[in-house]
């Protein structure tokens, strides 16, 4: 359960880093800033992290649900954490991947308005994804704290 909470928190902080550091740099001087980002991401990009850690987070959240299943209402908190972890990925695939394609893969000669709009939408909605990640992390920590209290008596 500790691993589930730690992983959820890690995803949250990497996602916040993307919003606070990466996204402003991507949009600083479109198209030049996106060309620089594309060059920077030639070896690895944030997706390399999320493609590994997000499924790990979901598996750990599922294990937590299984371990808490007989713990009354605690199972619903664990289930909520799992649902949010999956929902964040569904949101990523449905909303962010098409914008990532525009920003980082499609020919940069695409009209500046399309690229600018994709960057603005990405930047704005990543705060919603961060909220999903934060809620996931809070629920995972609630389960950890509750099970620690049951185990230690504190």
Give the total of beta strands.
0
Mean pLDDT, rounded to whole units?
95
Q: What level of helicity do the residues show? A: over 70%
Uncertain stretches of 5 or more adjacent residues: none
Give the overall silhouette.
elongated
What's the story with the biggest beta sheet? none
Q: What portion of the residues fall into strands of 2 or more residues?
A: under 5%
Can you count the helices?
5
Task: Return the string of H and E elements.
Answer: HHHHH
- Determine Rg (CA atoms, Å): 18 Å
Protein name: DUF1772 domain-containing protein
Transmembrane segments: 49-69, 76-97, 127-146
Keywords: Membrane, Transmembrane, Transmembrane helix
Q: What are its keywords?
A:
single chain, mainly alpha, 5 helices, 84% helix, elongated, transmembrane, transmembrane helix, DUF1772 domain-containing protein, membrane
